[in-house]
Write a structure and sequence with these properties.
The chain has 132 residues and is α+β, with helices and mostly antiparallel strands. It folds into 2 domains: 2-44, no CATH class; 72-128, no CATH class. Helix content is 38%, strand content 19%. The protein is built from 4 helices and 3 strands; from the N terminus they run H-H-H-E-E-E-H. It has helices at residues 2-11, 18-29, 35-44, 111-128, and strands at residues 72-80, 86-94, 100-106. It has a 3-stranded antiparallel β-sheet with strand order 1-2-3, with helices on one face. Strand 1 and strand 2 form a beta hairpin. It is elongated and about 70 Å long. The termini are far apart.
Length: 132
């Protein structure tokens, strides 16, 4: 039943992983099977394609900014709202401080929004920096 259900879900373009199969078994067939057990059945049947192996950590190239404010991270997240609309959340993180400087929500993130929010983050960090 696990194999047949997995193939049926995959054929319909649905998620066919162990959690999805477990949910369908529980809600449509009144059978409770753990995701680990389902995974073992799928692996034995040859239906699990192994993922690529991870590369060694020694092959990663590290980086460091020459100046305290030389590295920034940006995060863009789409957040659906109850009314069926969505918002996009922009977060700027200063690597030197590890603080999320501005976190703002927009209907749609555009190039000018990115520039404006980065400018606001830089100004906020500059204003908070102690003067010597």
């Amino acid at each position: 039943m696990i194999i047949a259900l997995g193939e049926q879900l995959a054929g319909r373009g649905r998620g066919a992983g162990p959690p999805a199969i477990a949910w369908h078994l529980h809600h449509h067939h009144q059978a409770t099977v753990s995701a680990a057990t389902i995974s073992r059945y799928l692996t034995r049947a040859g239906l699990v394609v192994p993922g690529p192996s991870r590369r060694p950590q020694s092959s990663c190239i590290g980086f460091a900014a020459e100046l305290p404010t030389g590295c920034w991270q940006a995060g863009f997240t789409h957040d659906p709202l109850a009314a069926g609309t969505g918002s996009e959340i922009v977060t700027w993180l200063g690597d030197q401080s590890r603080y999320a400087l501005p976190v703002t929500a927009w209907n749609r993130v555009t190039g000018p929004v990115v520039l404006a929010t980065f400018g606001a983050a830089a100004n906020r960090l500059r204003a908070a920096r102690p003067r010597h």
